[in-house]
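FYI - complex with NAP, inputs then prediction.
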Amino acid sequence: MNIIKKLNVFQINFRMVVLGDYPVPPGRVILITGGTKGIGLETAKKLARGRAELILTTRNSGVLENGEEQRRFLSEFPIPTKIHILKLDLNSLSAVKKFCSEVKQRFPRLDCIVCNAGTMQKNGGKTADGWEVHFGVNYLAHFQLIQLLSPTLQDSQDPRIILVSSSHLTKGRINFETLKNGEPSRSSRGVTQEYCDSKLMMALWGYQLQKYLNNIKIITVSPGWCRTGLGREHGTPWVILPFIIIPLALFSQSAEEGADSVVYCILKSTLASPVFIKNRKSVPAIQRYLEENDRLGSELWDFSISAIEEHK
Ligand SMILES: NC(=O)c1ccc[n+]([C@@H]2O[C@H](COP(=O)([O-])OP(=O)(O)OC[C@H]3O[C@@H](n4cnc5c(N)ncnc54)[C@H](OP(=O)(O)O)[C@@H]3O)[C@@H](O)[C@H]2O)c1
């Protein structure tokens, strides 16, 4: 175990030396979905060092209520900064709508929205609205959120939308027929197929969104393989666990390191968009793939617009 620890320490030191940091322009208002744990929380902590005003969402009532758990949560932020914790459940489109009305009322201007929240489940089931859960939570709810909140970015000096995707997107497929019925796309081994599908959708959506919002930077990012709570509900059979735990210990990174790429996308001033970022670099092969699938992206856009219209 010692050697594994040493390798991880080496990985962390190596990245920190190579990467360095970017300043956060003071007063930037940044909304992060799923901002109270995992990569979202680490992103928030890094931004807080630069005194950004943060809106973090969660379903966790302990963190939402003004009590001991919230105090413990806020103590993770050593530098005093404005943090607003808001309830958001992406499982329901009406909950997303309610959340967006609250945000619009309380925050006349946003500078950046990070669509970070996500789930990976083995037997995912359906959202409250009947959509396959990865499609509904990871993708469609964020699609609706951006449709409703993008006007609040218009007054920003450097408006950005960050879509947290994954390199697993290359395993993604989109089947509109099964989506229509809220069914899983197909059974799969390893990483849930529907999770990969939803991450492909995030990235294709980013490229379409840029056509509609040409004054806003739309940046899609893969944080890389991180040790977080994601996959907790994946239900991996115990016989397979050793094949996951060893590579996880050797090759995965901390949530803090995963957040580094996300923060880079939020702050790097010279980034042109649309772009797909991993490890602070654009990934030309994935960008080509997304451009080649522009027609699929456009179909997905139309499908998503009808899906959210249905719920009006
Ligand atoms: N970890 C990795 O290796 C990896 C790799 C590539 C991409 N990613 C992506 O990174 C993002 C963050 O994941 P993570 O690794 O940090 O996982 P995590 O620790 O499990 O965090 C997931 C976040 O999503 C939120 N969330 C889940 N379901 C939700 C729902 N129905 N409504 C509202 N919020 C919900 C959770 O908020 P609550 O507080 O409400 O539970 C939590 O903040 C995800 O989009 C994931 O796909 C992760």
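Residues 2-310 form a domain with the Rossmann fold fold (CATH 3.40.50.720). DSSP finds twelve helices and eight strands in the chain.
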